[in-house]
Amino acid sequence: MLDISGDGDARLICADLGPVGSDLTKIRVYKAGDQISEHNMIDPPCGVVGFYTENGEPRSSVVAVGAGDSVYIFKNMRPYFKYCLPHIEAHPKEREIWHRCGLDEELNVLTLADDLELLLKELGATVLSSRTLKFLSMDSNLRLSFAEQYRRVPLVKANALTAIATIRRDSWNDPASSCLILGTEGGEILVLDPRAFSVMDKHQLEWPPVAFASYGLWTGDGRIMVIGRDGRIGTIRRGSPVKLWETYTCIKFLILLIFFINFFSISRYGRMGQEERTIAMVTVGGGLCMKILKRTADFNVNNPMSNSSSYNTPKFSIPKKTRLFVDQTIRERAEAKKIHNTFQQGFLRLRLQIARQASERLTENQVSGPNPITLEANVLGLGPNYMIRVLVTNISDGSPHTELYILCRPEDTDVNPRTIDLPLLPSAIPIPLMISASLKNQISGKVKILLCKKSNPKPLAITTVILPAAEEEFEV
């Protein structure tokens, strides 16, 4: 929510990923619940934030949209600036192969393909660059023109944004300038200057961040809360390393309860139009709902009225047994065998129909092409408690895949979690996942990891890891 034009009315700015499987990604701007403009995006955005670049200047508001490896800055909802993430150094062996290819006077595509295939088997798809993965996934007739075009271009690995947020820089007076916070798939956290959009501070994590929460002033005692994809939480302060939270307590207060018919996927609280306290929510189906809080509402947890209302909740009134309920009970007792047989017949018909539909789906997917997603798994630890590190990489050059999830099928092992929903998979960017596994007995265990899609009953990729039996402890 941001006053993008400086007229005193705050607008709601949100990202629309479009239908599943399409590239119709747009940024939509709403005023008082009505859409006033929309803007097309090249890549699916990971987040949209609004902030001010100058202190005390309402017209210095800008909108930042993180998508792919770039941050697009809009001023008055017109393109203003584009910031690109720094590239990652490619693997030395991969650089050497492309360097030799660029020095040759006559290009030998077969030799280049063989070298890169061997490197793919040795290192895996998670280490290679998008150029190599695209070259290996292309048809053999198209590889010559592709290699001729890029063999003398310096080889780098692309980075990808995972989270975006803001933090106030040096003023509490509204409007105040804010620094831009960027999180990357490589575990980097970049803090950008609001005027020059250059890197002010840089922090390195061992895991990719997916969400930020900030408070305070960045030039003072401000802190940035970081949430990782595997559930880890840490704090960052300027000039200090990242501090992980090992244990923390949670204090619960019921402030406000709102009931909805549909589930909502995201919510935002802030100023909308002339109202200071507005909640905007987007449902799973794509609907937009706005709630304006009363200006006289008191959210103080020490308010006696709010405390008394939580304890004086009326009980549910249970109705008495009706004549219809009694008659139905007598009928079920008299015709129990007939009712049971009717239920079993309907249940068997349902199972037969599901089996037929599953067989048809599996038959349709027999002619599918090569899998554009790789799945790698490594076991960490000495037992009996292990960590399984899974790397998922999209080696295709198309649009990011959606509706993907990881399913674990253990044998003699307890795993947590059993299912993991995957985010959008950009090209050539490995997505790391951590799964904890514990052996049930003193024998080795096995975990089968399946990469599945919600609209496809057949797994896209399967890998199996063996958990060795832990040695028995003995006293010396």
Automatic annotation (TrEMBL):
Q: Where is the Bardet-Biedl syndrome 1 protein GAE domain?
A: 373-471
Q: Which InterPro entries match?
A: BBS1, BBS1_N, GAE_BBS1
UniProt keyword annotations, A-Z: Membrane, Transmembrane, Transmembrane helix
Stretches assigned to coiled coil:
none
Membrane-crossing residues?
245-264
Instruction: Please give the biological process terms from Gene Ontology that the record holds.
Output: non-motile cilium assembly; protein localization to cilium
The superkingdom listed in its UniProt entry is Eukaryota
Instruction: Specify whether Transmembrane helix is a keyword of the entry.
Output: yes
Residue ranges of domain Bardet-Biedl syndrome 1 N-terminal in the record: 1-237
* Gene Ontology MF: a single term: smoothened binding
- How is this protein annotated for GO cellular component? axoneme; BBSome; centrosome
- Record PANTHER family: BARDET-BIEDL SYNDROME 1 PROTEIN
**Record-given protein name:** Bardet-Biedl syndrome 1 protein
Native species: Ooceraea biroi
